[in-house]
From TrEMBL:
Descriptive protein name: Prolyl oligopeptidase family serine peptidase
InterPro entries documented for this protein: AB_hydrolase_fold (IPR029058), LYPA1-2/EST-like (IPR050565), PLipase/COase/thioEstase (IPR003140)
Family under the similarity heading: Belongs to the AB hydrolase superfamily. AB hydrolase 2 family.
Residue ranges occupied by any Phospholipase/carboxylesterase/thioesterase domain in the UniProt entry: 14-206
Domain of life, source organism: Bacteria
UniProt-listed Pfam families: Abhydrolase_2
Keywords, in A-Z order: Hydrolase
Organism: Paracraurococcus lichenis
Annotated PANTHER family: LYSOPHOSPHOLIPASE-LIKE PROTEIN 1 (PTHR10655:SF17), LYSOPHOSPHOLIPASE-RELATED (PTHR10655)
Record keyword Membrane present: no
Signal peptide: none
Length: 221
C-alpha cells in the first residue's frame, strides 16, 4: 500500500510545529477539498501544521475523487471492515507525521467530514496514544458495538451535523453521540437547523473552540 500524502498548510507563524491537525475528506473528494478549512483555523492556531491526506483508493461511485473504503455495500459490518482495513495506512501516516516533527500523540487532532468523520472516529478512538481531540462533521460512528472492547482512550469529541442533510442523515450523529457517551467519551454535539451536507460558519467556530481547548491555546468557550 502506497504511503498517504496530501496538501499542507502552515504553520502560519513560520516557526516550529507545535500541533498537527489532520483533515480527512469525504467520499469522492480529496485532500484539496478539506485543506480549505486550514486558513479558517490557522489564525488562532499559528503554530499548527495542517495536512489533508488523499484517501488510498479511487472512488468507485464516480469518475473522480478518492475513498477511504467502498460504500457500494452499506451494511454496518461491511463498512466497519472497510474502516478497519483503511486504518492501517492512516495510522502509519499519523505516526510518521508526528515523528517527523518530534511530537507526541497528544499534539495531534483529527477532523473529518462525512466518510472522513467515520475514519477520524474509528482510528482516533483506537490509537495507542489518543489524539488531543476528534472533530467529526456530517458522519457516523462505525462499529459502535465493538467500541467498548477496542477503545484505547477518551479524547474530547465534537460532532457537528446539519439537520437537513440528505446524504448522511442527522440521526447517524445522534446515534454516535449516544454511543460515545455510553462509552465514557466526552462529547459535544451541534445540530444545525437547515444545514445540508456541509460545514457552516458555526461548525467552523465550534471546531476552532474545540481545537484551542484541546491544545491549551485558548478558552473552551
Amino acid at each position: 500500500m502506497a504511503a498517504l500524502d496530501g496538501p499542507r498548510f502552515g504553520p502560519k507563524s513560520g516557526g516550529p510545529v507545535k500541533q498537527i491537525v489532520v483533515l480527512l475528506h469525504g467520499l469522492g473528494a480529496d485532500g484539496a477539498d478539506l485543506i480549505e478549512l486550514a486558513p479558517h483555523w490557522a489564525e488562532a492556531l499559528p503554530d499548527a501544521a495542517f495536512v489533508a491526506p488523499d484517501a488510498p483508493e479511487p472512488c468507485d461511485m464516480g469518475p473522480y475523487g478518492r475513498q477511504w473504503f467502498s460504500l457500494q455495500d452499506r451494511r454496518p459490518a461491511v463498512m466497519a471492515a472497510g474502516a478497519r482495513a483503511a486504518r492501517e495506512g492512516l495510522e502509519a501516516f499519523l505516526t510518521a507525521e508526528l515523528a517527523r516533527e518530534g511530537l507526541p500523540g497528544s499534539a495531534l487532532a483529527l477532523a473529518g467530514f462525512s466518510q472522513g468523520c467515520m475514519m477520524a472516529l474509528y482510528a482516533g478512538l483506537r490509537r495507542a496514544e489518543p489524539p488531543a481531540a476528534i472533530l467529526g462533521y456530517s458522519g457516523a460512528l462505525l462499529a459502535p458495538d465493538s467500541l467498548t472492547a477496542e477503545i484505547t482512550g477518551r479524547p474530547p469529541v465534537l460532532l457537528v451535523h446539519g439537520e437537513a442533510d440528505d446524504i448522511v442523515p442527522v440521526q447517524a450523529t445522534r446515534q454516535a453521540e449516544s454511543a460515545l457517551r455510553e462509552a465514557g467519551v466526552p462529547v459535544q454535539a451541534l445540530y444545525q437547523p437547515g444545514l445540508a451536507h456541509g460545514i457552516d460558519e458555526a461548525g467552523l467556530a465550534a471546531g476552532l473552540r474545540s481545537l484551542r481547548a484541546a491544545f491549551g491555546t485558548g478558552p473552551d468557550a
